């Protein structure tokens, strides 16, 4: 039986296993190593460095950095934006997205979250306040 606590999520470990009986313990060799990986989970941290690359009167292109602790493979990002009366979301498989159909010269609040197969863990980026371009 193997009991391990305190292992990191979605991390690789190199273990050595030896048999033990009343007579004694088996010798360890390099062939006794086994490699295991802990299971994927939801992120423990949000996407970082959300910023605007370019704006026009109706679009805004954004980029961000992946979470520091994704705890798995990031399958999708969800970008949410609102101007107080209008809200929308955009999905992306890469750490960038273009928001479309913006109102000219309007303030928007934007956030992004990252999803693994297990969800986003309620890890939402800091809010980016941006202004769309003029006509």
TrEMBL record:
Listed PROSITE patterns: FN3
Domain (Fibronectin type-III): residue spans on this chain: 46-135
InterPro entries reported for this sequence: FN3_dom (IPR003961), FN3_sf (IPR036116), Ig-like_fold (IPR013783), RTP_Phos/Ushers (IPR050713)
Superkingdom assignment: Eukaryota
Keywords: Repeat
A Pfam family recorded for this sequence: fn3
Cited Gene3D superfamilies: Immunoglobulins (2.60.40.10)
Alphabetized PANTHER family for the sequence: CYTOKINE RECEPTOR, PHOSPHATIDYLINOSITOL PHOSPHATASE PTPRQ
Name of the protein this chain belongs to: Fibronectin type-III domain-containing protein
